[in-house]
């Protein structure tokens, strides 16, 4: 079987092409962040107060990588770590006003990327693709 006909290879290839495209656009617009940083910002926005461990689980990234990325996002003024009351060693990750403003400013760009990625694909095809990808995810867990 040719590697190009392997669905998992196509999924990985699509993911990499998508990230490269988005990063080029981020750089062109001088956003000053990486695609990985954007993904974490969006997860934090949608789930304010997650611990670093929960954020790592939700983003499918290793905890050490999350720590480094959060340090960068904190320096940019986009997130802050707040101590968890019952556990001094744990922190909840929260979006700052600056982080929320940044997301608001660039969300139209992200929406444009999303629209471009599905150009020419019908809603039925998207629903089927989503269903199939979820089945693959379930099979692999």
Which labels suit this protein?
single chain; 141 residues; alpha+beta; three-stranded antiparallel beta sheet; 6 helices; 12% strand
Question: In a nutshell, what does this entry contain?
Answer:
By secondary structure, this protein is of the alpha+beta class.
Overview of this protein structure:
- The protein is an alpha+beta fold.
- It contains 6 helices and 3 strands.
- The chain has a 3-stranded antiparallel beta sheet with strand order 1-3-2.
- A hairpin with a 2-residue loop joins strand 2 and strand 3.
- It is globular and about 50 Å long.
Topology of this structure?
Layout: H1 7-28, H2 35-46, E1 50-51, H3 52-59, H4 63-75, E2 79-84, E3 87-95, H5 97-117, H6 123-140
Antiparallel strand pairs: 1-3, 2-3
Helix pairs in contact: 2-4, 3-4
Helix content: 55-70%
Mind describing the biggest β-sheet? 3 strands, antiparallel
Give the class from helix and strand content and strand pairing. alpha+beta
Beta content:
5-15%
Question: Numbering strands along the chain, what is their spatial order in the largest sheet?
Answer: 1-3-2
Order of helices and strands: HHEHHEEHH
Distance between the termini: 24 Å
Mean pLDDT: 94
Output the radius of gyration.
17 Å
């Amino acid at each position: 079987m040719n590697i190009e006909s392997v669905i998992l290879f196509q999924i990985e290839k699509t993911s990499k092409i998508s990230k490269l495209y988005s990063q080029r656009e981020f750089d062109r617009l001088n956003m000053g962040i990486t695609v990985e940083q954007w993904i974490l910002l969006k997860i934090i926005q949608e789930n304010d107060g997650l611990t670093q461990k929960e954020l790592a689980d939700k983003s499918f990234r290793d905890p050490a990588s999350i720590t480094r990325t959060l340090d960068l996002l904190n320096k940019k003024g986009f997130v802050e770590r707040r101590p968890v009351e019952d556990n001094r060693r744990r922190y909840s990750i929260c979006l700052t006003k600056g982080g929320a403003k940044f997301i608001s400013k660039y969300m139209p760009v992200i929406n444009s990327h999303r629209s471009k990625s599905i150009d020419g694909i019908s809603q039925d095809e998207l629903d089927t693709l989503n269903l199939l990808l979820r089945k693959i995810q379930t099979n692999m867990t």
